[in-house]
Design brief:
CATH topology of the largest domain: Rossmann fold
Number of helices: 7
Order of helices and strands: HEHEHEHEHEHEH
CATH architecture of the largest domain: 3-Layer(aba) Sandwich
Helix content: 40-55%
Shape: globular
Distance between the termini: 30 Å
Oligomer: single chain
CATH class of the largest domain: Alpha Beta
Largest sheet: 3 strands, parallel
Radius of gyration: 16 Å
Length: 180
Amino acid sequence: MGTGGAHKAAAVRFGTLLGERGIRVVFGGGQVGLMGLLADAAMAAGGTVLGVIPNHLHEIEIGHPNVTDLRIVDNMHSRKEIMFRESDAFAILPGGLGTMDETFEILTWRQLGLHDKPIIIVNEGEYWTPLLHFFDHISANGFARDGLGDLYEVVDSIEAVLPAIAAAPEPTVTTIFARL
């Protein structure tokens, strides 16, 4: 859940916002942590939620039994592919290594031209500022092209996510899933 209550409150606000607007949540399927709080808030606000969880995590993270659609898959790769297919955009909220894994993969896929769906990094409370500095460091040292920041947009609040997605160009890349 992270320390303090700010990240919890942000997850609940975002889930509520999505649910109220009828925007389906696609997430990792766990009942615990911030993702569980976000899913609960979305459903409490009348929204639908798709959770995707691998068998081996279903028992550890306790797959969320109350979501609209819970898909239990064989492995992490299947999980991420389904989450990608079912999503129109990606909002990166504060999280740990699992969030980092998913963030780096979706950014890499975009960098490789495998998709051009919006990626929004929610830097509420400056949580992601060290990561954003690291991205600059990667570019400055020649390990990524200049303009790495063109792959994503950074917003400072949950309330800025949906306007950022709405302002993003309409995706034009047809994803060839065999390339993922």
